[in-house]
Write a structure and sequence with these properties.
Number of helices: 18
Number of strands: 24
Radius of gyration: 26 Å
Shape: globular
Length: about 625
């Protein structure tokens, strides 16, 4: 369910706060796979009955309350959406309500829309008026029922424990009907505001239309890269995303004024919006005339980003660099260096091709931090998949503090996932033993499909029949041959009578197959099996994952089998001990299993592993994937 539907009348008639909290907790467990924190439960117990009383006192008892409303294509939730009828037009009308129990809060000097609230010291938060405005904007961007009716959505932050003087300065962010802010001192004004947008008629039909609305296609990261940098902001940043964005811009201004260096670390799982933040920052800094660059350790990611601005955009293409590009950079030569996919940072920038005279052993972290006044690191610690990668929060933070640099950290993981499913991501972490609790059965998510294939043929056929972008990936358990002399790929991935080639090894196309760095984004990438080296950093609608014999089920859990892995990076037990291999191999599958935005189909080569997964995942035959009847198109 997208939201828990509650009536004002039921909340007033049965004011059992503990039972209410348990009801919402059960809703969250069913839809997200996680229970609430104690503070969340207390918030529901105190804030929701207070809102219900206000609605009753305003004469709006028949309005429908959609509690913990899930924003489309994310795991972010608005506290309440009130659904009803507009008093003047008679059309559907919605009021998004962000409830805050804050007793005191004040604007932060770190960013335009940031605030500091009592009880949360040292942590910048988004001004709730701006927070709810962005929720309204996001809903109108992505819900078809609101596409041509942005005036149907209104937003309000309700600080029902605070007086005006307690939150002095927060009202400055109120700019329209989607960003109003009321305190308990303004309770009467709040009631009048609600009556301006809602009548006391049943809101069930309006709620039905909102909850059943088709979701418009998400704004694809790569397709908007050039416009984001050249013209204007294309992405609506929500909550922690906007906090990270403003912390960087605030740090840039401070660094300019006082010769100050600050390191900012942003952590988040797949799809949490790290690269969206990077592009939004790069665009704004570029428009301000600041010196800023984007860097990654991934050839595939960097080359794809360079490719999207198009012809005649050399200046924009040159904004995208590699981590090892800053060996000779002057100190603070940049205002900002955005290190995307920072989990791929290595110990040094040297490799086997580096001339002996240039092998100084200087840490790559030192090069990156030295190059800019504000180095920004965007990472997911569960994506460290290669020996020698050092991109962890601990490593970055320790090195920064050892140099005397200030450090600020923002986590996107608490509730946010842009596309895909946060519930599924947690399920994968438990399946792979990367989080405690052990494997559990997948019990569904209305926005995400997980199915088990019983053969590679079945997996490929399901992908071919689905709509949207699709890719197949596998663990590195088969050899990887060079192309034949006739420019054809070798079918290295052989499973019984089924065989397919790996993606192209190098940076040139082979026949119809795209070069390695474009496998994830070019339509002709379907048909080759991708590996961790080409899949990491990208997402597609449907993901088919082949679990090789290097990860098998034994005695109720998944264990790694090093002898079955063919990755040259893991060949040396001296360089990569068995314990390191185990963790890295699990991270590899975590990455492969979390590339899908709409669903994942899994096939395991090992029969015992298939049997194990069959007890956890529905088979393909149990339910057709959404859009399955739509044939494959040439634009996949």
């Amino acid at each position: 369910m997208t939201a828990l539907r509650l009536s004002v009348e039921s909340l007033i008639a049965s004011p059992n706060e503990a039972a209410l909290a348990e009801q919402i907790s059960e809703h969250l467990r069913m839809t997200t796979g996680r229970g609430p924190s104690p503070s969340e439960a207390r918030s529901w117990e105190r804030s929701l009955p207070a809102l219900a009383r206000d609605l009753a006192d305003a004469g709006l008892s028949k309005v429908e309350m959609l509690v913990e409303y899930k924003l489309p294509l994310t795991s972010k939730r608005a506290d309440v959406v009130l659904a009803g009828v507009h008093p003047r037009t008679g059309e559907d009308s919605y009021v998004v309500v962000e409830l805050k129990q804050w007793s005191r809060a004040e604007p932060s000097e770190q960013g335009e829309h940031l605030v500091i609230a009592d009880g949360m010291p040292g942590r910048e938060l988004l001004n709730p008026a701006e927070q709810v405005r962005r929720y309204c904007e996001y809903m109108t961007d992505f819900l078809s029922v609101l596409k041509d009716r942005p005036q149907a959505v209104h937003g309000v932050a309700y600080l029902h424990n605070a007086m005006d003087l307690d939150v002095d300065g927060l009202h400055d962010q109120v700019r329209d009907e989607q960003s109003r802010l009321f305190t308990k001192q303004r309770r009467g004004d709040f009631h009048r505001y609600l009556r301006q947008h809602l009548t006391d008629t049943p809101g069930a039909e309006a709620a039905d239309r909102l909850l059943s609305s088709p979701v418009a296609p998400s704004k694809q990261l790569m397709a908007y890269a050039a416009n984001e940098i050249r013209e204007r902001e294309q992405f609506t940043l929500l909550d922690e995303q906007q906090v990270a964005y403003e912390l960087v811009l605030g740090a840039v201004d401070k660094a300019r004024r006082s010769d100050f260096k600050q390191v900012i670390i942003v952590t988040g799982g797949p799809g949490s919006g790290k690269s969206v933040i990077a592009l939004s920052l790069l665009g704004e800094l570029y428009r301000q005339g600041r010196t800023a660059l984007h860097a990654t350790g991934s050839q595939s990611f960097t080359q794809t980003m360079r490719r999207y601005p198009g012809r005649g955009s050399t200046r924009i293409k040159n904004l995208f660099m590699y981590f090892n590009s800053f060996v000779d950079a002057e100190q603070n030569s940049l205002d900002v260096l955005i290190c995307d996919e920072a989990h791929r940072i290595r110990e040094t920038s040297t490799n086997r091709f580096t001339p002996a005279a240039k092998r100084g052993g200087r840490p790559q972290l030192d090069e990156l931090m030295t190059a800019a006044r504000v180095p920004v690191f965007l990472l997911d610690e569960h994506q460290v998949v290669r020996p020698g990668e050092l991109g962890t929060v601990q490593a970055i933070e320790q090195y920064a503090r050892s140099r005397g640099y200030a450090v600020n950290r923002v986590s996107l993981d608490e509730q946010f996932r842009c596309g895909g499913s946060r519930k599924y991501e947690q399920w994968v972490l438990r399946l792979l033993g990367l989080e405690a609790g052990g494997p559990v059965a997948w019990n569904g998510d209305e926005d995400f499909e997980v199915r088990l294939a019983h053969s590679p043929q079945e997996l490929e056929a399901a992908l071919r029949a689905s709509s949207g972008t699709t890719r197949m990936t596998a663990g590195f358990c088969w050899p990887w041959s060079d192309p034949r002399p006739d420019d054809s790929l070798v079918d290295d991935v052989v499973i019984g009578a089924w065989s397919r080639p790996w993606n192209v090894k190098k940076d040139r196309a082979v026949g119809d197959a795209p070069p390695s760095m474009l496998w994830a984004t070019e339509p002709s990438g379907f048909g080759q099996v991708g590996c961790i080296y080409t899949a990491q950093g990208f997402e597609y609608d449907w993901s088919g994952v082949i679990i090789g014999p290097d990860l098998v089920a034994r005695n109720g859990s998944l264990v790694t089998v090093r002898a079955e892995n063919k990755d040259p990076a893991f060949k040396s037990k001296k360089a990569v001990p068995d314990t390191d291999f185990d963790g890295l191999a699990r991270n590899v599958y975590k990455v492969l299993l979390t590339r899908g935005m709409r669903g994942t189909i899994i096939y395991a080569v090992d029969p015992a592993t298939r049997d194990f997964l069959a007890n956890l995942i529905p088979s393909l035959g149990a339910s057709a994937l959404p859009d399955m009847p739509i044939p494959i198109s040439k634009s996949r």
